[in-house]
Amino acid sequence: MEGRCGGRGAAGRAPGARGPAHSVRLPPRARTARPARRAESTVPWLRVAAAYAWRLILVGVVVYGVFSVLGRFQLIAVALFLGLVITSVLRPLTDLLNRFLPRALCVAVALVGSLLLLFALLALVGNAVAGESAKLAGEFGGGIHRIEQWLQRPPFRLSQSRLADLQHQVLSYLSAHRAGLLSSALSGFGRLVELVTAGALAVFSSVFFIHSGENLWRWARDELLPSGARPVWDRAGHAAWRTFAGYTRGIIIVAATNAVLVGVVLLVLRVPLALPLTLLEFFATFVPLIGSPVALGVATVVALAGRGPLTAAAVLALIVVIGQLEGHVLHPVVMSWAVRLHPLVVAVSVIAGGIVAGVIGAVVAVPFVSVTWAVLRAVRSAPP
Fold it and tell me: Has residue 20 got a pLDDT over 60?
């Protein structure tokens, strides 16, 4: 054994070498690093921009698809939206009455009382217009004559013959397009029927939303969502409703404040049709940024025809004052419990909604964006 071991040790040595033999390990071969791509090493912002770009494209496709589907079922979408608006307004009153009365009776009292109030307001406006019709005809005749005299003076300097030509062109246009105007009137009557149908469906759906909205939400959550996702989306649903209700109540308060201010000023200036113009201002405020100026522009034209240039200038100054008050006082104070959006986001949302779905899209755009943002914040802040 020793001989074998000695033989192996002797054989393992190099001839003439002294001392024990040591095995030498070479260092491992260094891995050659793959050269980085030029786009990743030189322009890292390009990767970030591309990551955001495809996400934004995906969000845009989803939003376009939602609006396309809603456009197919526009009547139902508008009815459900109005039903949610009615629910957000009447739900606090119903909860207050529920302390003393049964739930079903509270819903009936709130809905019937609000409908009677709305019909009384419309009857008051119609009575005011009918009572001033004879007086308005004379005032508008004199107002048109004053406008013609005003246009003949500097800086316009339009001659009487030029004004007569303009009037003749307007009458010729109306005569030539009489069939088209009649068709538009009939189409407007059809839209009115659709609006009445949507209102009836909205009231019908609001009955169930006010009475048992929580039960409807729990049923939809349990039937449509897996158990693991229910807590997150339950929090998102509550955030969405809180934002929508806060925005709706806030915009109603802003609209009522604007309408009261406009109505007082129009009554002080003795502008014709002050009450209908006040009601127009109330409903126009629901279109942010552009609704109130348009309504006050109509009031300016009426004031110019009925009371003259000085009254029209006063109403025009009212547009600036109301705009500053609404933008810097009412919205920041009243909308504090809802999601506050940047004015640029509001403007882009209103324009985009108007392009996609007209006036209805302009009205729905801001609450839709607010609710979407609230849902994203609730989902993003969910604990792991």
Answer: no
Distance CA 313, CA 99 (A): 51
Cβ–Cβ under 8 Å, residues 343 and 280: no
3-class state of residue 322 by DSSP = helix
**Total structural domains within the chain:** 2
Question: 0.70 exceeded by the pTM?
Answer: no
Q: What is the pLDDT of residues 74-91, one digit of tens each?
A: 788 888 888 899 998 888
The HSE-up count of residue 337 (CA atoms within 13 Å, CB side) is 12
pLDDT of residue 225: 78
Tens digit of pLDDT for each residue in 244-290? 888 888 888 888 888 888 888 888 888 877 888 888 888 888 877 77
Range of the domain at 347: 227-384
Q: What is the DSSP letter of 337?
A: G
Helices (H), the chain: 2-12, 38-42, 44-72, 74-97, 103-131, 133-152, 160-176, 178-224, 230-268, 274-284, 291-306, 309-325, 331-334, 343-380
Nearest to 282 by CA among 258, 315, 248, 298: 258
Is the separation of the CB atoms in 308 and 271 below 8 Å?
A: no
Rounded to the nearest angstrom, the gap between the alpha carbon of residue 246 and the centroid of all alpha carbons in its chain is 13
Does residue 169 belong to any structural domain of this protein? yes
